Amino acid sequence: MVENPKGASARNKAKSKVPTGVWIKCKSCREPLFAAELERNLMVCPHCDYHFLLSAYKRIDLLTDEGSFEEYDADLSPVDVLSFTDRKAYANRLAETEKKTGTKDAVVCGLATLEGIPISVAAMEFGFIGGSMGSVVGEKVARTFKRGLESRRPVVIAPTSGGARMQEGVVSLMQLGKTNAAAAALADAGLPYVVVISDPTTAGVMASYASVGDVIISEPNALMGFAGPRVIMETIRQELPPGFQRAEFQLEHGFVDIIVHRKEVRDTVARLLTLLTPDNK
Ligand SMILES: [Zn+2]
Predict the structure, then answer these.
(1) pLDDT greater than 50 at residue 3
(2) Which of 34, 52, 127, 222 could cross-link with 43 by S-S, CB 3.0 to 4.6 Å?
């Protein structure tokens, strides 16, 4: 494995996407929110607790001790192997998205500490083509597990994704097996893996590393599943129960272990790692 630790350059570029001095309407309760205040509140609506999308770097901040995150593989960027064009050429889409998000693909990963506990960590960037998983996301997630294995650290991953990246065809589907094999190697070594799901986490990512954590945490009301509710409804031609595939539904059906408010995610993960890692007791 070629290790490629990176400093803070990409991180600073991508750190904040919320313009200051503007108002944003809450997608849930429709209350106007001051952007800077929303950001201070970890992108959670103070009126109705709606959890807005969090960028990958903000999520890393939430899950790591200040100044401890050392980014790896920030320079890995996808190759347009199929010369794929949908509404626009994949190559152009990649270039535009990189400019918008400041990341070269839909996941940020590295080593860090959380409440002093060394971890291997990754967080997904939904703003990068819907957080879709192609060859680079799969490789970076697999390396996150491998780094955990090699340095005997627990792994913490925060997925948010629409699934496999269709523009990479079968190469994107291969990443399901690859990431799960890497997660299994970590489990075989007795090292814990904690997943922190946020809205939405679906399809190929949910069908691979997002669903195999030792503990699966979800933010409130996060949508998760393989096919989305609309596709299922059209296939089975039946109404779905209220809250179908939302975190609370999945908790009730045993898929999610804990639902945790964003403000408490950090403490919860730290506590779990202390319990799951004998060395940290
Ligand atoms: Zn609200």
Answers:
(1) no
(2) 52
